[in-house]
Amino acid sequence: MKHKKEYLVLALVIIALSAYLFLRHEDRSGYSLPKLPPLPKAAIDRIEIAKGGRTLTLQRKDDRWVLPPEGYRADPEKVRQILDTLEGLALTALVSERRSYERYGLDEQGRIRVKAWAGDQLSRELEIGRVAPSFQHTFVKMGTMEGVYHAQGNFRGSFDLNLDEIRDKKVLAFSESEITQIEIKEKDRAVILSRQQPPVEVKTSGGGEGKKGEETRQRPAWKSKDGKEVKEERLKDLLFVLSRLKCSRYLYGRKKEEFTEPIYRLHLKGAKDYVFSIYSPEGVEGKEYPSTSSESDSPFYLSEGQAKRIMVPLKEILVKEKSHS
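^ thats the sequence. predicted structure below, dont judge the formating
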């Protein structure tokens, strides 16, 4: 009889515990996720990104984004990734209702605070933590709400940027076909190269009057001012590099006017004039080359590889004249 009572009590405890766990599970999975109001990226015109003691502000200006107060151009692709994330932000699960933020990278040291405005209205406010173990989600905290949520996507890296990382690194851009003249100065030597447009050749399809002519054009050739021929493949490669050039990083605390004696200088004439200068290398190992461009308000660094690809020696551009014995 005693054993039967013990079994009965044990069975009741098991039933009660099972019911508690079931109801707790039902309550856990039955929460409702906050509904985020729609935020079209076209409506966003100002974004603040804060981490630690650093705050970056992005401001839409006409059809581009700049970084006040200096007005530096922001990288269009990186801004696009930020806007896409803010527009498409989707919460998928409640991870924690407690204030144990450190484990999610949402403590004072780890979190990235983001605010986005549409006009005068603060339209999106969130804190971004670390990427979830699945690498498919990111831990976030929304506005003043205490809960930690899974947000769809791995996007912390799109916001974890410093000033130089978010700036547009493009320092020179043009269409290669527009360039008609290049002046190259290498130390104490200079050469001017011009694109020559050869005359049109007309060939007739047969003898006699009334025969239709066939027009053929030779491709433009480059020559130096004094008539020397040019190694066009080397020049083509140089124009290709310059036409879409991005610096490795910008130079802060110094102005373009401080740089006066370039070791290599290019003056290109096209739809407008482009002037590009490279100066003596700096750094412990001399691996960075200070440079300036007419298309950039700031001086910047080129990597050693970039600089050497641009500073083509004149002897490698001009065809060496054959000696006549």
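Residues 18-28 have pLDDT under 50 and may be disordered.
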